[in-house]
Design goal:
The protein is of the alpha+beta class. 54% of the residues lie in helices and 8% in strands. Helix 5 packs antiparallel against helix 6, helix 5 packs across helix 8 and helix 7 crosses helix 8.
Length: 213
């Protein structure tokens, strides 16, 4: 049996949200599973790469405000820019890992719920109380979760996850690694689909055009 597809995400990325709605279906078409792996853009983009956040980058930010809703329409998923300032995913990513220690499937359900809360409902996912409320709706003990994400092991788990992602070359999200092949961006899901089916790139673009993708 082949290894799961690694899907790296940060809740604050609209493109990671869009890709999260599709990645499992793409994998399932090829009899594959997906491992969700959180990473912090504040570390990979700002600290390691030394770049500004995309939405604070002149010219590019205007394009992205147009492109996010467009990509959502391409995939037929609900989406709206929340307009929130200073949001971060620290608590949510720690919570994902904390839940995943004992129930990986529940952690993925939690991830989808957090993505929807931010990119559909426009909720600020920064506060630990908000994260605990989202998890609580899925049956997670909110008090235990708050304690877990504030604990030293909870902090270290996310630090280790981010360091491991950087070690594999992950610099942005969504970032997928499938059978050793890295792909970055929600707009590369068609390439993932092709790779899983062929494990070769020759003529992939022509085949996609012919199929109307």
């Amino acid at each position: 049996m082949r290894e799961p597809i690694d899907f790296y995400f940060d809740f604050i990325s609209p493109y990671a949200y869009i890709a999260s709605t599709q990645i499992e279906a793409v994998a399932a078409r090829h009899g594959r599973s997906v491992t969700f792996r959180p990473v912090l853009l504040g570390i990979t983009v700002m600290k390691v790469m030394g770049l500004k956040p995309l939405m604070e980058t002149p010219l590019k930010s205007d394009y992205l405000r147009h492109d996010g809703p467009r990509m959502a329409k391409v995939y037929g998923v609900p989406f709206r820019y929340h307009g929130l300032k200073g949001i971060n995913s620290l608590a949510a990513c720690r919570a994902f890992l904390w839940i995943g220690r004992t129930d990986a499937a529940l952690a993925v359900r939690f991830a989808h719920a957090v993505f929807r809360a931010l990119w559909v409902d426009g909720r600020d996912i920064t506060p630990a109380d908000t994260v605990a409320e989202i998890a609580g709706a899925l049956g997670v003990d909110a008090a235990e979760l708050r304690a877990g994400i504030a604990s030293e092991p909870g902090k270290l788990a996310l630090n280790a996850a981010v360091e491991a992602a950087i070690g594999r070359g992950v610099f942005g999200v969504p970032y997928v690694i499938a059978d050793g092949e890295p792909l970055w961006g929600a707009d590369r899901l068609w390439m993932l689909d092709h790779w899983l089916g062929h494990h070769a790139w020759d003529g992939a673009g022509l085949a996609a055009l012919a199929a109307g993708r």
